[in-house]
Hints:
The chain is α/β, with parallel strands linked by helices. It has a domain at 58-82 and 196-420: Rossmann fold. The chain is built from 20 helices and 11 strands. The chain has a 7-stranded mixed beta sheet with strand order 1-2-10-7-8-9-11, sandwiched between helices. The relative contact order is 0.15.
Amino acid sequence: xxxxxxxxxxxxxxAEMENPGKLPANVRxxxxxxxxxxxxxxxxxxxxxxxxxxxxxxxxxxxxLTRTKANIIVLTACSFPSGSHKVGPAYAxxxxxxxxxxxxxxxxxxGPSTGNFGIGTAYISRLKGFKSxxxxxxxxxxxxxxxxxxxxxxxxxxxxxxxxxxxVLERVVEFKHDPTKLVLGQFELLPNYRFHRLTTGQxxxxxxxxxxxxxxxxxxxxxxxxxxxxxxxxxxxxYADAAVVAVEPKExxxxxxxxxxxxxxxxxxxxxxxxxxxxxxxDYVLAVHDDDTVKGLRVFHQAGAEGxxxxxxxxxxxxxPKNDLCFNCEELADCGEFDLYRKCFGISSICNIMGAIRxxxxxxxxxxxxxxxIATDGFDRYxxxxxxxxxxxxxxxxxxxxxxxxxxxxxRWDPKDFLDVRPKEQKERLFRMKEETxxxxxxxxxxxxxMKSQAFWDEEFAKIPAMxxxxxELRERSxxxxxxxx
Length: 486
């Protein structure tokens, strides 16, 4: 047994993250108990979209709020350990490296990020007993830095803000050739793609199966690393006619027209076509104003059920039965639905919801049609951003202001904000943009050309069973299965 195996902390396979019901019953029960202590390593087995009842966690927004005929279904990611689904790709990348013998116990884990993936990297490293360094822009929310430090991660801050991720990648290059470092490259490594195509894709499909006509008419996601939008491959595989919409800031309209501006939507709009973005399955790009997402978050967070009822001009029932949408958050166990929205929606969540609403209008979807999107993280990462909004706003943020913002943000849309990227020339443009970025970072033209075929992505996805077998074998070989504490 190697030194690394003696120090190994076991975690789930891909199949167990997609459906934790596949775990041994005693492991599953111990993991659920571990939610009371966020730093218990058994929480690795809580990396899943599913609650204790094994159903995906999601909400269907009231039509009085969305003013759409279609159903807007939102998968809620604040249920994940560390508070965002980005912990999943961080774990998957680490688990594949461990299972293939690429990790030694004295390594430092490097997480290039603009926030949530970095938080996930620090969290996974803490649970597995590694040092971590998160490389991210200096202009992100203070809460992101605080959470990374809470999990014991160190920070290297690069100039700029959300849209300056290229500088992060340039800083990380030097670590790739350092044998004492392991880079969890969310923008380029395929475990991110595999995690979302399997787990997020299946969660979206199953959530929609319980709503409306049971199908997915559209899947909407704002790309950052473009991991989450990999769920579109699963959606397209089941519903070939489903539309896939990538949302980006107008202020950084890279996918739309090569725009490279600075913006306020943390977690998306990174001035590039990421390596793991399968642009073959993106049908439309939608541009939204960045500050609308910040104002939209304020509308949800400040108004509550009663306020939203006034704003929407229709009674919205904010009550719901006992739920389990949030991780380690007992105060939400019996709360109203809109209290959940206040806790479980962050800025990119609002961006995705705006995109889903506008997509429903743009496609002319009917009453039984379903649009699925993602709430990436919760409000806990944005109090400082809300304080900045108050400083920038002329006058009080009262009911009149909230009503104005609601009408402007959620009830108005312009079809000119959509770009159809299905034509061949649009795909070729996006491929050229990908090449312009990634040839600089040691990827070959041959490798990039392979990504122009769906067969490449299907072959990468098909590696999951072998990876799962390797993860399971390492667990057994280490003598850490079942895990300590079970």
